[in-house]
Amino acid sequence: MDIQERNIGGCEDNIVEMIDMDEENLALSSSSAADTAFDAVIGCIEDIIMEEEFQQLQQSFMEKHYLEFEDSDENKLSYTPIFNEYVDLLEKHLEQQLTERIPGFNMNTFTELLMQHKEEVSGDIFDMLLTFTDFMAFKEMFLDYRNEKEGRGVDLSQGLVVTSLIPAGSEHTDSTGPL
């Protein structure tokens, strides 16, 4: 599946549609068209995962299952059906939304492109997409969620020091008078 630029509705004003093309029709610009298409899909994914519907799906799923996950080297058998349900629910939602917004969208083609461009994708987006294919990333997401729910998140406040930029005893004024 190759890429051809077309002006269509969707996540962007100008988006690139993924369609089958003859190899003869490919020009040197196909690389930039492919890059544009990839960027458009990533932009759509960012839009989708920020929408209330996706957030609610993920939040309610995690809320339902987070107590099952424990921070140990051994993985419970119960993790597998939870992982499969998560992938089925959220990946299918994401794929459905992308298919509606980008005519000709193909998840398999996008996955191949993602692996080629993974260095270019925002860490948060890549990490979220990784939870669909990498069980350990999925488990880590649940462990982080559980730690946050139970108040065991990372507390950075111990390393903070507040220092005044105005030396003690000096008189500084602003437009309203002395400080």
Describe the structure in your own words.
α1 crosses α3 and α2 runs antiparallel to α3 (79-101). The longest helix has 23 residues, at 79-101. The protein has helices at residues 30-50, 52-65, 79-101, 107-117, 123-130, 135-149; strands at residues 2-6, 15-19, 173-174, 177-178. The protein is built from 6 helices and 4 strands; from the N terminus they run ββααααααββ. Mean pLDDT is 78; it is low at 1-9 and 12-29. It is 51% helix and 8% strand. It has 179 residues and is mainly alpha-helical.
Name its key features.
4 strands, disordered N terminus, two-stranded antiparallel ribbon, two-stranded antiparallel sheet, mainly alpha, extended, single chain, 179 residues, 51% helix
Give a quick summary of the entry.
The chain contains 6 helices and 4 strands.
Q: How are the SSEs placed, and which strands pair?
A:
Elements: E1 2-6, E2 15-19, H1 30-50, H2 52-65, H3 79-101, H4 107-117, H5 123-130, H6 135-149, E3 173-174, E4 177-178
Antiparallel strand pairs: 1-2, 3-4
Helix pairs in contact: 1-3, 2-3
For the report, how would you describe the main beta sheet? Answer: 2 strands, antiparallel
- Kindly state the number of beta strands: 4
- Poorly predicted spans: 1-9, 12-29
Distance between the termini: 66 Å
Number of helices: 6
Approximate shape: extended
By helix and strand content, what is the structural category?
mainly alpha
Element-by-element helix/strand order:
EEHHHHHHEE
Q: Approximately how much helix is present in the residues? A: 40-55%
Kindly report the spatial arrangement of strands forming the biggest sheet: 1-2
Estimated share of beta-strand residues: 5-15%
Radius of gyration: 23 Å
Mean pLDDT: 78
